[in-house]
Amino acid sequence: AAHLSLLSVREQPRQRPDQANSQGSCLVSRRTQGESTTSKMAEASRRPRRGARSRDAGGLKRLDAALKRNDFYEAHQICRTLYNRYMKEDPPNHKLASEVLERGMASLMEAGQKGSVADLALLLVACWRSEGRSVSSEEVLARLRQVVRDVADGQHYADKLMVAVLDWARADAKKDGADGGDGADDASVPAAVHDLVADAFRLDGQFSKASDHYPWGSDDALHDYAAMLAAWSRQGNERLAHDVGLDVDAAGSDADDAHDLAPAAEAAIAVGYSPASTFVLRPVLQLAAQQTVDRAELLFGSFCRARGDVGTDMASSPEGPPFKEAALEFLAYLLRTLRRDAGPLFTLLRNRYSAALAKDPECGKWLDKIGARYYGIQSASSRSGAPGGLFGSLLQQLMTGAMPGPPQGATPQGTANQSIGLD
Known about the structure:
Layout lengths: L1 H10 L5 H30 L3 H19 L3 H16 L6 H17 L3 H18 L6 H14 L7 H17 L15 H13 L3 H7 L5 H26 L3 H4 L11 H8 L6 H14 L2 H15 L18 H12 L5 H10 L1 H4 L3 H15 L4 H6 L3 H12 L23
Helix pairs in contact: 3-4, 4-5, 4-6, 5-6, 6-7, 6-8, 7-9, 8-9, 9-10, 11-13, 11-15, 14-15, 14-16, 14-19, 16-17, 17-19
């Protein structure tokens, strides 16, 4: 059997080298053709099908037709439909999705459809975010600034858009390892984004919301913040003054003691009249407590110049500012004091102007933080909870050196209108 097996092997015809090469070439050719076919199929799957392209073309024609007949609701919905179709492709077609949104926004803006423009801008933000863009890129911010200017008319169209922008900024910050929060004072959000959001609320007349973001924006934005606060102070007081027949400027000249005012001014205070200092006092204290004296001075000086009728800042009146309100005078002296190692002087100022500061309960909170940050002075609540009560708190400050002595020549003297040691 072994002999027959050996003979059968010997009798098999040998394969010539040219035949082996030919078969190998066929195998390689078939493999290459298979790979090419697979590649073409994959490429075809990524390309829109002919039917999809025709539907898209039909959608754009319907969009143009809706705009021509002023059917803006239909045009808005067509834009949303096409956007969703492009974003559902695999992978999403961000280019076509953003193009159709931009096309729709431009046409609807020409027709004055600001609500629809804001809604499509919200989808544009989602498209950019899906694409992997950065919210702080100048291209993105410039386009959003234009949208904000376009849709601002007091109808709060940009509110949802700003929420989406802040959420995008916080997500970017977390990717970069920043430890951010979810409040308006989130320092992880870039200053340029805070500027954008603050401007959106300011242009829409929502001054209170804008005030939450301006403190965390750029130095340039503080000038807009000051102008807004000045306009806000005039707007509110003029409305109240109209109701009681009050000359706002005359009443605001000395609005800190009701018994010194004319009867018309007293009536204005009774219905809620607020002097100019009411609108700038807390923002300046907040900047000094949370950030820097430089930024607080920048806001305060810009506000005084924007109002033009409340007095001058310390720089232009070094001998003593002729402010018309005690609270503004307090701010001027406070900002100079914070540049010195003058804890006792800070306490004296706070006590001397306590009547003017008592009108805003929040001022006490910010002054507590300022005292703790600059001079190591604990607030009343902190002292009450310290071991040993007030005496224990004072002893702890003396032991740690947290309570500095008054600098040479800083002993306060004179009345509130004098230099009180701030020469």
